[in-house]
Every structure is written in structure tokens, then in C-alpha cells.
Amino acid sequence: MTTGTQAHSVTVRVPGKINLGLSVGPLREDGYHELSTIYHAVSLYDTVTVQPAERWSVHVTGPWGERVPTDESNLALVAAKTLAKRRGRRAKVDPVRIDIDKHIPVAGGMAGGSADAAAALVACRELWGLDHVENDLLELVAASLGSDIPFLLHGGTAIGSGRGEQVTPVLARGELHWVLWAGEGLSLSTPEVYAECDRLREEAGVEVPAPEPSGALMAALRRMDTDEVADALCNDLQEAAVSLQPSLAEALAAGLDLGARGALVSGSGPTVAFLVGSQTEAIDLSVGLAANGPTGDIVRAVGPVPGAQIVHHRSGPEPTRPRTDPDRPGPLGPVVG
Ligand SMILES: C[C@@](CO)(OP(=O)(O)O)[C@H](O)COP(=O)(O)OP(=O)(O)OC[C@H]1O[C@@H](n2ccc(N)nc2=O)[C@H](O)[C@@H]1O
Ligand SMILES: Nc1ncnc2c1ncn2[C@@H]1O[C@H](COP(=O)(O)OP(=O)(O)O)[C@@H](O)[C@H]1O
């Protein structure tokens, strides 16, 4: 898109995700597992702001800020630098300072690092005026950096296949209400959870079939019937996550006892997602968990919500109004108002 004036800063809001279904196939030769997953973006957001600077840097604030690396390994910084390399010969780009306001649990199975990477791609494309970088190229760059990143460009509810990087939107109407629980001091490494899943399967001597989307879950989403969705929630990584972090079993049981319609570990965990029927039920469950559940951070959220969206673009001395309606699910990439 053409901005006319040089942008001084661009702010992008990006959601975390849960996996409503996660079917994990056999280990591939490249070290990844073939997947069929149903991603679902929820209203727990990080905010990523980029602005031109003398040198590349990243600064992180917010409740999870202290757990995020600010060195060269930060995924938002990696994403920005990768886009800078892929910009094409004529486009000139300056280094950027990246500010992340971190609300998505770190190493929690909600793809927070991937979310920041997706946000950095959308923000830098806008800041640098890379109108020629089409969504397809942005998706390619995203996929090269992490399996979950392309989904965070889309948001909504979508099937992920391949290693998770191939994303197809699911037509689902209505809203689901969630209570998210992130246990105090808990974190799990994604590769370790996949490895534990392989180990448990080998130990049980099970033949691993090709992954496929759950028909029951797809049907429940078409009807958007909360109880049907609750019954169809499934995650092949849950057993492995609980094996590595046994306290998760207690958290899952506590939420169900306190009235959740359904419960599952989000992706590789350890965040637990509880499905409830309404905002009132979400408040009741949050209060119940805070009073009687295991210690952790408790957040209410709804889904689906759109992926990485520009919410503020400062191109002159005065801040401009938000350019998008961040609550309206939209197509891939920013929607210019
Ligand atoms: C499990 C999931 C479910 O959505 O998310 P999280 O729970 O981590 O957020 C994803 O598959 C995580 O995706 P992401 O975190 O982007 O993983 P990547 O950086 O691509 O890969 C990190 C490592 O995870 C393992 N991996 C990842 C994806 C996949 N399909 N098979 C794998 O075996 C590999 O060991 C890989 O080296
Ligand atoms: N911007 C970032 N936000 C969060 N984690 C990041 C970021 N950049 C790099 N990381 C690293 O990525 C790892 C995975 O974090 P995250 O994406 O939050 O979890 P998950 O893979 O479970 O969804 C963390 O251990 C952290 O060190």
C-alpha cells in the first residue's frame, strides 16, 4: 500500500492461538511432524511497534516481558531482518527498533513468539513501504521462520496442514468463550513435547496414521454449538505435555469440576484452555479458578479474532487515527480504512 509520507512508526496488534484439534502424524525426514490442526485465534494480544533507528534492537514490556529474549534470537527481530533481506534490490530499508508489549504467555503453547514475528512482518512491510511484497511472499517468509507464523497473519479459525504452515480458513460463524490458565512458573519446549509424543507412541507400539482433521470438530464448528465443540476438542500432544508437566492433569480436572464445558492443553502446552458457554460462565470460572484452582495467570478471551492487524500508523508529527477495525475478522494482512 502507498502511504505518501514516510512512516515514523507502525503498531500492529496480534493475537495468540489455541489448537481446537491437533492431529500429529509420523515424524518426517526433515525432523518435523506432518500435522492436521484447527487453529483458533483468541483475543489475548501482543502489541508490536516498529520505528526507524540507528541500529537493530528489540525492547519488551508487559506481564511476560521478562521471559522474552532481547538478543538476536528474538523472533520479531529475526522476522524483520529476514524481510529486509527479501525486500528486493531497489527498496531501501533502515534498521528498526522493535517494541513488544507482551501479554501472550511465553513458551506456553499459544505461539506468542510466532505472533510477534507475524506482527513484525506486517509492521515492517508498512513502515518500509514495501507495497511490492505481496501476501504470498510474506507468507513464504513467515513459513521459513516457523510453522505457526503463517496462521498468525490470517487469524480466525483455520486448518493447518503440512507442518502447520499451510493454512486454509474454516468458515465458522459465531463466537466461542474461553478461560485460559497459564500455570505459575510453567513452560514447555515445543521440540521436547513432540519428542515425548514420539517416545510415548514408540513405548505403546502404536502405528501412527496420517493426520486428519476431526470431522466431529468441523461439524461442531459449522453449527457453533459450544457443547458439541467441547466434546470434539482433541490434542495429540496433550498426553506428552502432561507426561512432562504432570500438574497439568490437576489444572484440567479443576476447570472441569468448576463448570468448564470442555478443556484441553493448548498446542504443546502448558497453557490450558477451558471452553465455556458465555461471558458470564467465563467470569464464574475465572473467579472459581482464582479461588480454588492451581496457582496461575487466568485470562478470559473470545475467538475467533483476526490475525496481525495495523492499529496505529504515525506518519507525521501528530498521531493518526487507527486505520483498521481490529475487532472485525479480515483477510490476510492489514485492511486499510
Ligand atoms: C505445537 C504447535 C501447534 O500449533 O504450536 P505451539 O504449541 O508450539 O505454539 C506447533 O506445531 C509448533 O509450531 P512452531 O512453534 O512454529 O514450531 P517450529 O518453530 O516450526 O518448530 C520447532 C520444533 O518443533 C518441532 N515440530 C514443529 C512443527 C511440526 N509440525 N513438527 C515438529 O516436530 C520440531 O522439533 C521443530 O524443530
Ligand atoms: N518475541 C518472542 N516472544 C516470545 N518468545 C520468543 C520470542 N522470540 C523468541 N522467543 C523464544 O521462543 C520460545 C518459544 O516461545 P513461544 O512462541 O512463546 O512459545 P510456544 O512455542 O510454546 O508457542 C521461547 O522460549 C522464547 O525463548
Automatic annotation (TrEMBL):
Sequence positions that bind ATP: P105, V106, A107, G108, G109, M110, A111, G112, G113, S114, A115
UniProt cross-references to Pfam families, sorted A to Z: GHMP_kinases_C, GHMP_kinases_N
Domain GHMP kinase N-terminal residue range list: 74-156
Gene Ontology biological-process entries: isopentenyl diphosphate biosynthetic process, methylerythritol 4-phosphate pathway; terpenoid biosynthetic process
InterPro entries on file: GHMP_kinase_C_dom (IPR013750), GHMP_kinase_C_sf (IPR036554), GHMP_kinase_N_dom (IPR006204), IspE (IPR004424), Ribosomal_Su5_D2-typ_SF (IPR020568), Ribsml_uS5_D2-typ_fold_subgr (IPR014721)
Domain GHMP kinase C-terminal, residue spans: 217-289
Domain of life per record: Bacteria
E.C. number(s) listed in UniProt: 2.7.1.148
Region described as Disordered: 309-337
Active site per database record: K17, D148
Reaction catalysed by this enzyme: 4-CDP-2-C-methyl-D-erythritol + ATP = 4-CDP-2-C-methyl-D-erythritol 2-phosphate + ADP + H(+)
HAMAP family assigned: IspE (MF_00061)
Record-stated family: Belongs to the GHMP kinase family. IspE subfamily.
Name of the protein in its database record: 4-diphosphocytidyl-2-C-methyl-D-erythritol kinase
Annotated organism of origin: Serinicoccus chungangensis
